[in-house]
Design the sequence.
């Protein structure tokens, strides 16, 4: 199954904690696919949840209670939301060059941003996280600036839109689409052969 | 607890089937509150799910599979979405004059529209549904045109926005907000004293 997300999405942060475990319970593996949610917003006429009147307040309340329910720390950085191009480009570089590090890097980025307030707009900060996973720091910095991984991220975003992915997180299970963190129970039902 | 909805919302149709039973399992009752979702969209910058690129296709796929999962008939009318002011005004008239009929009327409107393709833009069609519940048909028609119930619906929409309600369905459990049909399991956890 595929897990599509934007690194700046709080609901993707929560989904990232559980999606691999959920899939594994049903003998499935998960391909993680960062994409640029803002590009999907342009197509669908949606806007950032965090910034919208009413929805932003609901989101902040909701993220805090989900964190409490899951017993994990959550602290939205003051500069939320951000353009997560550096984590995404680095992710695609790792997926190509050090595939065993890519998911741990993504989880570490989510934790750095949503739990420790790290400023992932800064390439240096993202490179440190890649280095923590054992990747060469200078190559990470080079990858973030390389046309190749910029293009990789752009193509991933195009692929997302072509597949009908318009939100974050978004799950495709053998092509069957599920939008939103709150659909993980339905994904699990589907994997259990719900039959509907 | 409060159940806020727009009569034109497919996810509200599904929620309407279950919300009273869910509440009753926890010794609670539900106050049904139609409001004008389009007014909330203006505040939050959202747009109609059904009409948006990508989201509309996802919605139609999702509603069909939810209906299959629940084993109920669902057929989106070709003129979906519609401005549900007549069902809403009639609902508030019934809530004031024949309160025991209001919920059954609402359920009958949902079924007429989402299962039988009835055109609830027509006052005559809505009046027939009210009459089926035992309400005086001519009074229903008069209520739909009366400034009093137009105002009632407007005030309900204002109250919704003041309470942070921006989507349909939306649940308030002692003030705790839950947006979306897919949050009913979380509402149930909350009512069970989830404690988070």
Sequence:
């Amino acid at each position: 199954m595929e897990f599509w997300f934007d690194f700046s999405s709080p609901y993707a942060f929560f989904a990232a904690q559980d999606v691999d475990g959920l899939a594994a319970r049903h003998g499935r593996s998960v391909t993680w696919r960062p994409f640029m949610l803002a590009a999907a917003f342009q197509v669908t006429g949606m806007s950032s949840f965090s910034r919208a009147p009413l929805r932003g307040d609901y989101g902040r309340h909701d993220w805090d209670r989900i964190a409490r329910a899951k017993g994990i720390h959550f602290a939205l950085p003051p500069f939320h939301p951000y353009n997560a191009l550096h984590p995404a480009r680095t992710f695609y570089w790792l997926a190509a060059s050090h595939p065993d590090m890519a998911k741990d890097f993504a989880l570490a980025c989510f934790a750095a941003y949503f739990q420790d307030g790290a400023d992932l707009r800064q390439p240096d900060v993202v490179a440190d996280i890649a280095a923590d996973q054992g990747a060469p720091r200078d190559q990470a910095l080079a990858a973030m600036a390389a046309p190749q991984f910029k293009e990789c991220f752009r193509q991933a975003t195009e692929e997302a839109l072509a597949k009908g992915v318009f939100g974050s997180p978004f799950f495709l299970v053998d092509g069957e689409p599920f939008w939103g963190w709150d659909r993980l129970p339905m994904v699990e039902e589907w994997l259990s052969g719900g039959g509907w």
Q: What stands out?
A: The two ends of chain A are 18 Å apart (CA to CA). Chain A has one domain: 2-193.
